[in-house]
Each structure stands twice: as structure tokens, then as C-alpha cells.
Amino acid sequence: MLRCIFSEDVGRYATEFNRRYLHWSEVRFRDTGPFNPDAIWARMKIVRLDNGSELVFGGRTHRYHVTDGMMRMLHEFDLKASIGLFPENVDSNRRVYYSVSSLMEESISSSQMEGAVTTTKVAKEMLRRKTHPKDRSQRMIVNNYKAMTFVKQGIDRPLTLEFMMDVHRIVTHETLDEGFIGRFRDNDDVVVQDVMSGEVFHQPMPHDLIVESLQQLCDFINDETEFIHPLIKGIILHYMVAYIHPFEDGNGRVARTLFYWYELKSGYWIMEYLALSKYIRQHKGKYEESYVFVETDDNDMNYFILYNLKALMDSIAVFEDYLKRKIREERDTRAELAGHGLNERQIGIVLDLMNGGSITVKSIQNQYGVSLNTSRSDIKVLIEAGLLKECGREVNARVYSWSGVGCNGCRCPTAGD
Asked: Rounded CA gap, 206 and 190, in Å?
């Protein structure tokens, strides 16, 4: 058996399977010709352990190592982050809009993953207008949005237990029993399981080890003596918060929010435009599988790291495609709106309304980060230009929508979703 493990042919299989970072459940069913899958797996594990780094939290050892595939994705991400996603002709107002819109998308998708039931369109309208949430689902989304805003303002803070509890307090506001909000769990009754079959996927860290485990995690994140790529370190933070499962509920939302915080803290402002949770929600099976693979392979975090790096690269590609389409559509529409004294923000408001939906003075203020007077002035100008019409009232606020025509009475093309 030993001679077989170190044979050249087994080595070729092991190298290829490690390049794809297959789990044993995948290796065992591969066609490996005359070679025993057990021997190939043993060779794969030797290479992984030889190249791995160990991290200990709460007495439990976790491992990871940076593969060639990871290095390639890290390099591509760094290039995108340094070059930027926007062409020079995208003005600051539109960049703010895309940032806020992506932040909303992230908050909505992260909540939908945890059971929030609402459409993205309805949720965005609620966030733009800052209307009071009508049910638990909407409250979850508002909480997530506030938590993302909160951590953006805290990028100079170190990671502490108090900071984690602050995030949890915001994320679970009015959605969880008051005795659990902003507090670590004091029992071991919580398990991660399949809601249909009842199969238990994960038994979280014992409650009496939570503080010790999280403090070790904080020390790891705050320690800058040894360089670990910020994406790798942030993904480990994401994984370990979910693994330790320190709260009664809301652990996934806290974990994803802290990942976002750490990447902004590390200078990756590109994260403002990436709705990572949208990708995760669309590929939730693989997300959950990556957790299972880690636990069933000696706490090898590479499965989770690789999943999240792929998610980040896909999120960049999706945003770039969206941006190219929007720029192309906006260019055509701008040509029709040009020459009528509208500024870039006002043109942007019209373009947004062409996608459907409506606005209020307050939603313009929130979406574009302008004063209330500026928001009122924008709406007045657009009404006088024949581009907006009043379509109703919401509490004490007037609601406006696109009139359906251009500045000269022509019908402008819609900009699409």
C-alpha cells in the first residue's frame, strides 16, 4: 500500500484532484483506473498536511493552505481592486448610487438566506424610503442594512467581543427574544440541521468555550505580525464565527457582516459594490456543502475558502456586466435628456425611475446622500421638465414616478433592470 501511495501514477491523480481540491466523497466515485481511491486520497492528504497552516480556537485545530488556484484568484481580485470597476465617465453621484444599491442588495440577500420572505424590489423601496418595516422579514432586512452601515463606520476599530455583540444587537433587533439579543448563548441546545430531514450538520462550540474561542479569533484577526492575505483572513473570520455559533440566532448574518467589515478595514473598498450574499443565496447548496466538507475532512478550511473566493470573483464579473449594460443603456437615454439643463444626479433619478418604482423627497435624499432641500429642488426641476408625475401619497409624503415621456414629449426608451 505504501509503495502504491508514492507511485508516479498515483501522484498524477493526487496532483489533479488536489488542484480541484476534491473532497473524499468526490474522490471515491472517480474513475481512477487500476488505482485504489484510498491510496490516491492518502497521497492527497500528505501533500495538504505538508503545506498546511494550523489555527487553534477553543482547543480545536483548523487547517488551511494557499493553493495555486487560490493565489490566482487573489491576484485577479487585487488587480480589480487596484484598477477599479468604473470607467472615468461614471460620475461620483452614480458611484454613490451603485454603492448604496449594492449595500441594499447585500442586506436583502443575507436576510433572505435566513428566511426573510419578500421581493428584492419591495425591500429596496422600503430601504430607500426608510419606511417602517411591516413584518419580521422586512425588519431583518432593515437590521442588516443598519448593521452594514454601522460596520462601515467602524473600520478603525479592532475586532473585540463587544464589537461582535454590537453587530448582533443591530442584526437581531425586534426579531429575537430580548434575552438573547447581543448576548452569547448559555446553552448547547442549538444545532445546525436540515429543516426537512432533521439531519444535524454541525454541533456548535460548547457554550463554556465561546468566550475563549472568540477571544482567540479576535487575537488572530487583530495580529498583524505575520501577513495573511486579507481575503483569506476575512473568510476565516466568516467561517469561524459561523462554526463557533456564539449566538442563539443570527450567526450567519453576523459572520457575513464581519467579513464585509474586515475587507473594508483592509482597504478593499471594492466590496461596497459586490453583493456577495446574492451569489451565496443563489448557490446556497454549495455554501452549506463547503461547511460540511470542512468538518468531515479534519477541519480543512480550504473548501470554504475556495467557495468564497469563487463567489467573490463571480460577484465582480456580475457587477461588471451589469455596469457595462447600464452604461450602454444610460448613454442612449442621456442623449435624449441632454441639453435641458438637468445635472447628472437629476438625469440619474430619471434613469432609475425608468426601471419602475417610485420616489419621495426622502428616498432621493437617502439614495444620493444629498440634503432635503436639494432633493426637493431635484423633484421640482423634473416635474417642470415633464419627467415626473405625482402618483400618490405615503403617510405624509408625496410619491412620484416617471411620467413616461422625455423632455420634448417623446417617449424615452426604458433603461432595463
From this structure: 10
The answer to whether the beta carbons of residues 375 and 365 sit under 8 Å apart is yes
pLDDT in tens, 74-133: 999 999 999 888 887 777 777 887 888 898 999 999 999 988 998 888 898 899 888 899
Instruction: Kindly calculate the radius of gyration of the chain based on its CA atoms and give it in whole angstroms.
Output: 25
CATH fold of 63-319, please? Fic-like fold (1.10.3290)
Please choose, from the candidates 300, 230, 220, the residue with its C-alpha nearest in 3D space to the C-alpha of residue 51: 300
3-class SS of residue 394: strand
The type of residue at 173 is H
How far apart CA 296 and CA 201 sit, in angstroms, is 10
- Residue 141 and residue 107 in contact, taking contact as beta carbons nearer than 8 Å: yes
Q: What's the maximum distance between 2 C-alpha atoms anywhere in the chain?
A: 84
User: Rounded to an integer, what distance in angstroms lies between the CA atom of residue 2 and that of residue 7?
Assistant: 9
Percent helix, strand and coil across the chain, each rounded to 5? Answer: 60, 5, 35
Nearest to 123 by CA among 296, 277, 319: 277
Protein fold of 341-417: Arc Repressor Mutant, subunit A (1.10.10)
- So what's the pLDDT on residue 406? 52
| Cα torsion through 344, 346, 352, 353, rounded to 10 | -160
- Give the Å distances, CA to CA, from 246 to 183, 219, 288: 8, 17, 18
Asked if 239 and 304 count as a contact pair (C-beta separation under 8 A), the reply is yes
Contact of 14 with 44, CB cutoff 8 Å: yes
- Angle at the Cα of 366 (from 362 to 272), degrees rounded to 5? 165
**Is the Cβ–Cβ distance between 45 and 52 less than 8 Å?**
no
User: Rounded CA gap, 156 and 18, in Å?
Assistant: 38
pLDDT in tens, 191-205: 777 656 777 778 899
